[in-house]
Automatic annotation (TrEMBL):
Organism: Rhypophila decipiens
Alphabetical list of InterPro entries matching this protein: Epimerase_deHydtase, NAD(P)-bd_dom_sf, UDP_G4E
Protein name as it appears in the record: UDP-glucose 4-epimerase
Protein family (similarity comment): In the C-terminal section; belongs to the aldose epimerase family.
SUPFAM superfamilies in alphabetical order: NAD(P)-binding Rossmann-fold domains
Amino acid sequence: MAVGTVLVAGGTGYIGSFTALALLQNDYEVVIIDNLYNSSKVALDRIELICGKRPAFYQVDVTDEPALDEVFAKHPEIDSVIHFAALKAIGESGDIPLEYYKVNVGGSISLLRSMSRHNVANIVFSSSATVYGDATRFPDMIPIPETCPIEATNTYGRTKVMIETVITDHINAERRKAQQADKPYEQWNAALLRYFNPCGAHPSGIMGEDPQGVPYNLLPLLGKVATGEREKLMVYGDDYASRDGTAIRDYIHVLDLAEGHLAALNYLREHKPGVRAWNLGSGRGSTVFEMIKAFSKVVGHDLPYEVVGRRQGDVLDLTANPALANKELGWRTKLTLEDACADLWRWVENNPKGYRQDPPAKLLEALKAGKA
């Protein structure tokens, strides 16, 4: 019997698909909506191959309220939402800010309105460490705790700050109105998950990140350099005040990140805390050059790169202090940076066309053998 039914908005994307997999593996029913702008329906096939269960799927844009209403009406059993649906490239967000505010903020408002109409009161939101901006502007804020003041330095980050505010105001208002009417109010809850740099792929090698256009994240770009699809990696700035001059980031394996969403959802359902924010990260910072070295080691040869100027909105150090999530959620990262690099290379090497090819037979055989 299912523990509950969760709507995963943006569930065919990278983190969304891995979270849907984790939910199914932990006895939740899953309904996915996605407009497939930067993802593929093939992710559903891969989820099913790995866990033997297939999520329900609707090609719906998160800004389309009537379509959202239809999905909720078809699935009255939905009791919670995990919300990933967003545009997510920092550089691009500065070029097309209106589109980012329309999709990210407008889409979140549409989703919350539809949830309210259908009495769905729990939401886990995919936020970002970018909400903190440059935490080095404060003393003793690296690694970054949840108490760090919020001040995003780019449009993408500002959309996340705005959505966190909208969700907080909405949940608090619903709780207050219910209390004033002398009705139950504890069912209204939200988790704001501020996570750092997701990376890696499924260890089976048949499921990973497959952006439709040019990837914006470091490890997928390195993967394309390793396969020869890209000539070299662009390193944006080597004049930061770090141990080698490049920016420092906290890399977290996507399997650990998916488990963090599951832990947050379970916490909301069990403890009914209202609105809570948690950092999901490893607590370990790695520079860009260290990441290039780690991935080059897995690939077996040095990968070419070129240092260019800094990007607008980038900051020196985004390393998490995950102590609160460790304590309250009982969650911590289990997989290493080396695991993430090895899993990503297995995915990229075996699936150079991503989801636009069938998974290699040897990987499928190994997956079946592992289940036997």
